[in-house]
Specification:
single chain; about 160 residues; mainly alpha; Ribosomal Protein S7; 6 helices; globular
Length: about 160
């Protein structure tokens, strides 16, 4: 029998926007425990987003996260020696995790001088419904749609 699942520790909201989602994003952005550097990168990126779009960078970032958030994904399941990709709803907590990770991952892969530049460009692209992270969401949905025939196997 498995032990009890670990309790989720509450996140402290960030200083500027008083939002725990920002802290969660920065925690994923952070490397080697350098949280203040990660916050600097994030806030610089939002400033650049405001300059590019002439709108509130924070609102654009929230819209970008919304656009990248997946509703369904495929999960592997072995049935009778064959592995099937079965479409499944994504849990609320995992939706946020995936969208954050995709935004950060694809912004790191972008061209740009600094991480703040790369992140701001990816945020702007995602808010418009384009860019690599948005494409990842579309591909995930397309794969789930293609494997709809196996939905009756449910995980």
């Amino acid at each position: 029998m498995r032990k009890a699942q670990a309790k989720k520790l509450p996140l402290a909201p960030d200083a500027k926007y008083n939002d725990t989602l920002v802290t969660r994003f920065v925690n994923n952005l952070m490397w080697e425990g350098k949280k203040s550097t990660a916050f600097t990168i994030f806030y610089d990126a939002l400033d650049k987003v405001s300059k590019i779009t002439n709108e509130d960078g924070y609102e654009i970032w929230k819209r970008a996260l919304q656009n990248v958030t997946p509703a369904v994904e495929v999960r592997s399941r072995r049935i009778g020696g064959a592995t099937f990709q079965i479409p499944a709803e994504v849990r609320a907590d995992r939706k946020i995790s995936l969208s954050i990770k995709w935004l950060i991952r694809y912004s790191r892969e972008r061209n740009g001088k600094t991480m703040a530049d790369k992140l701001s460009n990816e945020i702007v692209a995602a808010s418009k419904g384009e860019g690599a992270s948005f494409k990842k969401k579309e591909d995930t949905h397309r794969m789930a749609e293609a494997n709809k025939a196996f939905a009756h196997f449910k995980v």
